[in-house]
Amino acid sequence: MSVPKGRRAVLTGMLALISAAPLAGGGPFPQDTRGLWPGAATVVRGERSLVIGHGVPYGSLRDLASRADRARRSVEEIWGPVRAVILFPATDAEAAALAGAGGTGGLAALATSDRVIVLPSGYARLSEVGRDVVITHELTHVATGATRGGRVPMWMSEGFADYVGYRDAGIAVRTVAAELAPEVRDGILPSRLPGPGDFAPGAPRLAQAYEEAWLACRLIAERYGEKALVRLYGSDVGSTLGLSETSLVGAWRDYLRRELG
Ligand SMILES: [Zn+2]
Question: Are 11 and 138 in contact (CB under 8 A)?
Fold first, then answer.
């Protein structure tokens, strides 16, 4: 399955979200996309998303709009309404310029506070399921406001986006956590939840950091319910789950052993 590798490269791009502002999900579409690619843009409207392409075949935009509709329903089921503009530029360079990002090598998509930007070459390398996971992950970031300027821990922001992304994907835990599983089998367990440094571009255990974050959120959803996981977003472990972060880390290490050991 090519999903995990391809997707993992994508996720490093989400670091662009660190300063993303919270966004009300049900509002009107942002208006400042009108000036994009004047005379050369193709617009496809999904249920609550707008796909705008530049030099991209209509069928690919239609396909993306369908994925955005499915992703939107997944996000809405767990979190709440989300509207997003999804931009599908002609080249990676165009995408990087739109995102205001320096380097986007190896990524397939990234999100800003109100839009998802597809990186054509990375997106093309993803499997069908991988594309759905990526679009759902990015739309989740748009809906939640990602880290809300650093106020939400990255393990929560990335773990929650992956939780929603993988929830209905039908991919085995060991497949999603392909990099973390061998470590756990060797008896190497993380001693703390992953922090910003673990999610930095080029971090040596970047893939594992995403997998650890995902499994922390999955554990919370299984044990306390999805509603508790949602409440925890922007809150703290103690008041939401009634246990200390140390206890959560202990439970999470047991969970890793059970799921991957
Ligand atoms: Zn992300």
Answer: no
